Amino acid sequence: MDLEREGGRGANQLRPIDCSRNVLSRAHGSASCSHGETRVLAAVYGPKAGTKKNENPEKACIEVIWKPKSGQIGKPEKEFEMILKRTLQNICLLNVHPNTTTSIIVQVVHDDACAALIDAGIPLKYLAESGKILLDPNKLEEQKTKAFVCLAFPSSVHSVLTEGSINGIITSLTHGVMAVDDYFQCVEQGRAAITPLSNILKKKLQSQSAE
Amino acid sequence: MEPKPSTTPSSFTDQQVFPGDVVLDLSKMANQTIKLGGGLRQDGDVISVMKAGKLRFSKPNKYWVESSNKRYVPSAGDNVLGIVVDAKADNFLVDIKGPTLAFLPVLAFEGGTRRNIPKFEMGTLLYVRVVKANTGMNPELSCMDASGKAAEYGPLKEGFMFESSTGLSRTLLSSPTCPVLETLGKKLAFEIAVGLNGRVWVNAASPSIVVLVANTIMKTESLSPVQQKIKVESLMQRMR
């Protein structure tokens, strides 16, 4: 894949990632994460007592509020909220605190591409442009392509077990037209990129929490 | 994904672990009883991590994950600072910074009978002990210790309360005495109550001492013991 990308990145290279924890003093938990030019601020409040009317009281309820950089809240924001909520429900252990609500508020600070999930889920974006696959596109590249895929994988873990790796995708979002083989290739490339991504994230989180 | 190949659990103790890390393989350890504290759970044959933090081990067989949060997970036997939110017929509803409100039975005081029920207004700060904390149920509190004596539990009058993280509370309560409290105690006279839920109450004869103590504790949270001593001394110098 000898494509020329802006900024001289190879087809398989990721944009620079930065992330910091505990940025908001009043929120119960907060993080700020940036992939290249995209920056997102997320705050978590909870768990607080009580669930919403239609939710199961035996499990914790997760409420996601997505705030775009500018403009009114419309359907794309509601869609992101629903996607994030479903993804998080699969990652979080909901039986630990039944009958509580945890609110997550995501504010897009600088919008370049789809926002990043923090800690234990890593979304990666792929695009397929007439047969070639690029990793982690920015907005311009996104607009030129035929299709793109956003995938969230579980992060790599340190384990005492010598065998057994985690297979599986948490969330997959596709947009546009692509062949089935291309999709599988995107998945494989994504899986390969998880280890370096999650190592970077862990190092950042570790250096901040070490006191 | 390349799992780190290691068979001994001791390779992870005192190290930073993240949710999903597998720390113990039960099929390799036969006939051992292991006690799991907060932050760990059993997933079939392995023990995996629920919360990010440092894995700790105490002999003979206790494992737990230590992390510092702004919210508190109630557990039995902890001393916490709660704020009264409501008073019902049988209980006071008390907020202890956990996922649910806690109940303080109206009779859980030394010499408490139906005739001398204490009257706490909304907003009263109490130093209480957590008696029961089960998942799904509201935690139960008491103003008596295990033998039925009052032992310093009850409402805290005057003074100033501030909130911080559970990690700071544990540092303040550690033994030997935390360097900040030791250095402050050499020159100043003050009263302090630390709740494991991240709330700290300070009282002293004059407001300036209260403010100095509270600010010092909040600022030295992330410093090492030596740095703490230096910082405390420099802050006290400024006051003189």
From TrEMBL, chain A:
Gene3D superfamilies: GHMP Kinase, N-terminal domain (3.30.230.70). Keywords: Exosome, Nucleus, rRNA processing. InterPro entries: ExoRNase_PH_dom1, ExoRNase_PH_dom2_sf, PNPase/RNase_PH_dom_sf, Ribosomal_Su5_D2-typ_SF, RNase_PH. Residues 13-121 form the Exoribonuclease phosphorolytic domain. It is found in: Nucleus. It comes from Rehmannia glutinosa. Pfam families: RNase_PH (PF01138). Belongs to the RNase PH family. Its main location: nucleus. This is Exoribonuclease phosphorolytic domain-containing protein. It comes from the Eukaryota.
From TrEMBL, chain B:
Residues 34-71 form the Exosome complex exonuclease Rrp40 N-terminal domain. Keywords: Cytoplasm, Exosome, Nucleus, RNA-binding, rRNA processing. Its main location: cytoplasm. InterPro entries: Exosome_RNA_bind1/RRP40/RRP4, KH_dom_type_1, KH_dom_type_1_sf, NA-bd_OB-fold, RRP40_KH-I, Rrp40_N_euk, Rrp40_S1. It is found in: Cytoplasm; Nucleus, Nucleolus. PANTHER family: EXOSOME COMPLEX COMPONENT RRP40 (PTHR21321:SF1), PNAS-3 RELATED (PTHR21321). This is Ribosomal RNA-processing protein 40. It comes from Rehmannia glutinosa (Chinese foxglove).
